[in-house]
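Folding follows sequence. Below is one example:
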Amino acid sequence: MAEIVSIKRMLNWLRNAWRFIAGLSALIWVPSFLYWATLDERYLYYPRQENPATSQIVPYEVKGVTVYLTIEQYTQIHWLMMAAIVSGSLVLLATILERNSKPYGSKNRLGKA
């Protein structure tokens, strides 16, 4: 009986840790997605031809238009995209898993454990 209690305790701890990770991912996803969208709007008005004088040589497609960015700008938007995709995926996965689960030890609809 003691093993069952410790297993339930461990599973509850893992569920709480997963909820913490999902919440942290949501806190990362929102600002990174908003900043990514803001940069996309700003980059829409960047030059549409290479400009080596200003180091805008990296092509980037935004809303069907190819614009040219500096290497630093492209690196920044690349990392923002990756942060938004990874954290958004974790939030989506957590939402799906949490919706389909029930707390350990809870009763089902028939009132049986």
Q: What stands out?
A: The longest strand covers residues 58-62. Strands lie at 58-62, 65-69.
